[in-house]
Every structure is written in structure tokens, then in C-alpha cells.
Amino acid sequence: MNRKQLLTLLVLVAVIGGAGLLVNQQRQGDWQQSSTGGGQKLAAALDVNAVATVSIKSSAGELNLTKQGEAWVVKERGDYAANFSTIADLIRKFADVKAVQTEQVGASQYARLELQSPGDGEGKGTLVELKGKDGKAMKSIVLGKKLTKKSEGGPFGGGEFPVGRWVRDTASKDTVLVTTEQFADAEPKPENWLEKDFLKVERVKSIAVTYATNAATGWTVTRETEGAEWKLAGLKPTEQADTNKLSALGSPLSSPAFTDVVADPKPDKTGLDKPATLVLQTFDGFTYTAKAGTASGDNYPFTIAITGNFPKARTPAADEKPEDKAKLDKEFADAQKKLADKLAADAKFAKWTYLVSKWTLDSVLKSRTDLLVEKKDEPKPEAKPSAK
Fold first, then answer.
1. Could you give the CA distance from residue 366 to residue 26 in angstroms, rounded to a whole number?
2. Which of 7, 32, 135, 177 is the most buried (most CB within 10 A)?
3. Where on the phi/psi map is residue 54: left (φ > 0), alpha (ψ -120 to 50), or beta?
4. Are residues 210 and 182 in the same domain?
5. In terms of domains, do 86 and 231 share one?
6. What pLDDT is stored for residue 27 in this prediction?
7. How far apart are CA 319 and CA 77, in angstroms?
């Protein structure tokens, strides 16, 4: 190769290299070199105490958590009480989280990083808006694609696990952040944000179950003391209650749990227009009337109403001493206040329709025949051979 050919080759390499660089820059679009490293806060100036609404929106739906007075509620669940600690934790994350990387990224790259606002075409992320009492957004954040890292084996095998997430402040024109916080709970799933504390029925004296579709299958059991055995009412001479089955009734609703609140509690859609009704009376004077609709999956639609019938005054004992009266009157008043407080606390649950797990009710939603000793067919006598 002579000198002239070598120079020609070098010129061709330079031209091809320059063209490749130009194509690469065009493909990169608005992507630019990192502007800074970590340390920048996502919402440094956020006044966490001024947040009155948390709105979460994605392609999966929308969720609005709103502060009413001193309490938080879930709008999509009929303003049912929200779990304050979960909400406070999310707000604190936005206020405290710091970037581990800051990039200058134009709008054309949002879809690739799943940082588009919901409804803005492909590559949509999750939009979280923290709003004040006036309904105006104090901070609007789009949570984008999660960054993952491959695990090289280990006791639980290999695979990928999340190590960070792309995040965009909508007020920033072309700056996006990478944080180690995953914001895994920032999803528009109302059931995950409900306050799950529920009522508890204690010291049950009687249980009555009736079925709107078949009244004959209903039944009632009672007991004289809290530790006594259940007695099935209305036994016929030909019937015998199965004590093992009665003891398996336990104490219904002593620790019930619900999975969700029904968003559209129309009786004809839930089966509560023809319910199974469970009435529990307690030794303390409470009456709980629960209704269960048609089971769907692992849950029953469920409503409950509570009333209380407590003594108005204390009846002194025949041999009560005057010096004991003040003490006994105070104990009675304290006990009555405790009952009244429980009635008020439990009564608040009557407003909504719930989804309760089958294990909560299946032990008690039985037919009357299920509580009886099974009748065994008596063997028929063998036929005698006829005489020849």
C-alpha cells in the first residue's frame, strides 16, 4: 500500500466514524450526559403537614386518599377510613428520598423510562399528586421504570431484583432522578389503603341463623354461661344434637377480618337481598345482626348492625353496706361507660358492606341438619328361605 492509498483509507475511516457518531447522536434524541451525581432531594420543600389529598393514578386505575378533619378516608370506598400510617409513610418517602443519580432527559425519552404521565401515550408511569386543602397540587411525581440487578446464584437461586427507580418531577422540564426507593406501595389499589381494624364480638350468649331462601334450615343455640356447652333449640324427640359439631361453632365473629369494602353495594348484586342472617346476643347486652350475601371467590359480601340494651341503674344487694355503696356505684358507672363506648365504636361499622373471608363465616353458616347426629340406616333383616 503506497502513501496515497493509506491517506485515502484514513480519510474513509474518519468519514465513516463521523457518520456513525452522528447516527448514534440522532438515536439518543434528547438524552444528554448526567448533570450531577446523587444527593438531590425529590421534594425538599414539601410541607408534609399541609398535604390533604394523595392522588395515585396509573393505567390500572385511580385512587384518592383524602383528609377529612383529622382522619384520612378512601374516596373510592365510600369514604371508608384509611390507614394513616401507610399514608404518612408514603408522604415522608417523597419528602426524604434522595437521588443517587440525576440525568438531563428530554421528553422524547420519557416513554423509554416509563415516565410518561398516565394518558400520555406509551411508556406510562404512575402519577402521584400531593395536594393541599385547596385541591392544588403541591407536588406531582411520575414514578417510572424500576432498575434491576441480576443475582448471581445464592441459596435462593439467581434472578433479577429491583435496586432503584426512575422518578420525574412534572415541574422539572428535563431533569429526572434515580432513587433506591421503590415506592412499591404507591399503587391505586383501594383495598391496600383501608384501615383494617374491625369489631370483635365477645361473650356470646346465643346464636341464631336464618336463611332467606330456605327458612326450614335455620337454627338457634344458647348457653347459660360463657364457658358452657351450646344447646340446640327446638329438638324433636327423633333428633339428637351432635355435641362435637356444636362445640365447633366456637365464638363467631370473635376476631373477624375483612379484605375489602364493596364499592357498589347494591343488594341484588351482592346477594344481600336474600341473605343468610346471623344474630348474636351477648351476656353484656349487645345484639349483632350480620348478613351474608352470595359468596364470590374466597369472600362473602357482609353487613352488620349493632344495638345495645344495658341496665339503666344498679340494683343494690340485700345485704349491701352503706360504706360500700359509693364504690359499687362507681364500678357500675365505669362498666356502663365502657359498654357505651364499645357500642359507639362498633356501630360505626354498620355504614358499609364488606368482603369477609369464608373462614370467618363458614364455621357458623350451616344448615340445622348439619348440627344433628347423623342417622344410620338400620340393616334390613335377611329374608328367611321359604319352606319346600
1. 71
2. 177
3. beta
4. no
5. no
6. 36
7. 56
Q: Which three cell numbers stand for residue 37?
A: 451525581
Instruction: Assess whether 274 and 178 both reside in one domain.
Output: no
- 88 is written with which cell numbers? 404518612
Task: Please indicate, yes or no, whether residues 143 and 249 belong to a single structural domain of this protein.
Answer: no
- DSSP states of 175-215 as a string? EEEEES---TT-S--GGGGB--------SEEEEEEEETT-G
**Whether residues 135 and 255 fall in one domain:** no
Say which range, 5-14, 177-186, 288-297, 374-383, has the weakest mean pLDDT: 5-14
Global pTM value: 0.81
Tens of pLDDT, residue by residue over 175-219, are 899 999 999 999 999 999 999 999 999 999 999 999 999 999 999
Residue pair 278/304 in contact by the 8 Å Cβ criterion: no
Whether 18 is covered by a domain: the verdict is no
Q: Do 287 and 365 fall into the same domain? A: yes
Query: What span, in angstroms and rounded, lies between the C-alpha atoms of 172 and 124?
Result: 17
- Structural domain including 229 reads 204-314+324-371
